[in-house]
Amino acid sequence: MPDFRKTPHQFLSEVHTVSASQAKDLFDRHLAEDVVFDVAYPVNRLQGRDAVIAGFFDPLANALKDVRRRDEIFIGGPNRRTPGGHWLASVAHYVGNFEEPLFGVKPSGHLAFLRAGEFYRVEPDGRISEAKIIIDLLDLMRQSGGLPLPKMLGTEMLFPGPATHDGVLPTEQADGEKTLDLCEAMLADLKAFDPKTFTSKGQTGDDGYWHDDMLWYGPGGIGSNYRWSGFEKDHRASFLTAFPDRVGGDHYCRIGNGNYAAVSGWPSMTMTHAGDYLGEAASGKSLTLRVMDFYRCADGKIMENWVLLDYLDLFQQMGRDLIAEQSG
């Protein structure tokens, strides 16, 4: 069976590098006419090929001059969740000189790395019919000096690629279904936690899901951390204090490919804003959160986890417009 990942990967890599007429031909050949893109706030839903081009691809090209795409992870496989089908998942950066506003974010006039998590449904004819995309506009604000939230809980850094440098179109690796099995088991046990210690069964130790040297790469607003102790201190404790009844795992896509797995929900989490979080006082509101997780596993353990969260949408539900609040 031909590798269904390769043609869409080439399309996504090339579309920002060619002339306008060549780009139109690429869009016509690789996007279904009735394609639907769900993009992070404030873009949200785009329906139809023309709307997707005008509402997503063109703004990127206009704001990030000479924009180029750099994939850190690009995997594909059969989707375990409804609606099924074959899906792709990627962690990428859109790289360019940030010279014009992007979805309301003020430009820096300098080089920017806009991180993105992306899921694409690919039809049997090879065309993309559906996409979910979280672009980290909060981190883009940070790069422009206008982040409207407190200092990161963890360490702010450019999302690195996998330590093994083999995340793009992986081949000759482990069974992707077994990799996904491991990640699904971890997520199932992660749901319950001790409210005093914020620990969940089976996560760490000799028989735990996570490697002792785990790395967790978080989005703008959170930052990244090292080892389970860092994960608890720099993300989990504050998140569970603010949203103690959170329920996650409502996913539209779960795929495994070699040593990698990716899952996403739109939204994935439902929760009550019961405690203060990132400078926002508890409101008691019922909230939802769009989530994307990408994993690299080895020797039966989760080694690295890249996480994209639509925090602009989350704070909008709290009553705050972070784009309007940016400084600079």
TrEMBL record:
InterPro entries: Cyclase_SnoaL-like, NTF2-like_dom_sf. It holds the Pfam family SnoaL. Signal peptide: none annotated. PANTHER family: ESTER CYCLASE, POLYKETIDE CYCLASE SNOAL-LIKE DOMAIN. This is Ester cyclase.
